[in-house]
Amino acid sequence: MSKQAKVALITGANKGLGLETARQLGKLGITVLLGARDKTKGEAAAAELKREGIDARAITLDVDSPSDIAEVADKIAAEFGQLDILVNNAAVMVDARTGNETSTTSGEVLRTTFRTNFFAVVQLTQALLPLLQQSEAGRIVNLSSILGSNTLHATPGSPIYDAKTFAYDSSKAALNSFTIHLAHELKDTKIKVNSAHPGWVKTDMGGEGAVMEITDGVKTGVELATLGEDGPTGGYFHLGKALPW
């Protein structure tokens, strides 16, 4: 009997970093589940990857929807019995991005940002953890950002010292905290949990000034998703280098 291929779920995978992450994992022979809020867009993305010979399957998932999360967990359990890789890629940035507006950032902007970038990640990961525990080598990758580094934000002259988008930055700092805490809880298991900074990538969120191509932006996440047994856990990385929290 042939061994079942590894299974990966990537959230926000119908475009950008999520889609390319699915493509790169799929090229390694991993079955990729493309989580997307819009079923039609998800299916179109999966069809694109299938034409490239990748075992890609669309799965309807609005990470802000508890019912979607429960349905996805049940679906993966029924079809595969386990999950090997979870890439928490879906995120939003709703800050104005016109300078440091911390004192006027509204509660609505903060709640919207944290709902997707933090609370949804925690809820989805918790729901899928039993399936990851069935894997021989579960991997959780939280797509963070260098903007989540409190150390660099507080250091004059750092690359992000003058780049202050309060809601987004603080949501990614909270996500990094989740990485640290969950990795510690699971340190005696085969599951590894890490945060990835993709870089300033040419995506809808990255904007016109971005300097990295999407194919390069996914390298960190793909590496962390396919770590060997001797790989790190509880870390914060960009292209193989650790970032300060």
Automatic annotation (TrEMBL):
It holds the Pfam family adh_short. InterPro entries: CBR1-like, NAD(P)-bd_dom_sf, SDR_fam. Keywords: NADP, Oxidoreductase. The keyword Oxidoreductase applies. GO terms for molecular function: oxidoreductase activity, acting on the CH-OH group of donors, NAD or NADP as acceptor. Belongs to the short-chain dehydrogenases/reductases (SDR) family. It comes from Granulicella arctica. The keyword Oxidoreductase applies. This is NAD(P)-dependent dehydrogenase (Short-subunit alcohol dehydrogenase family).
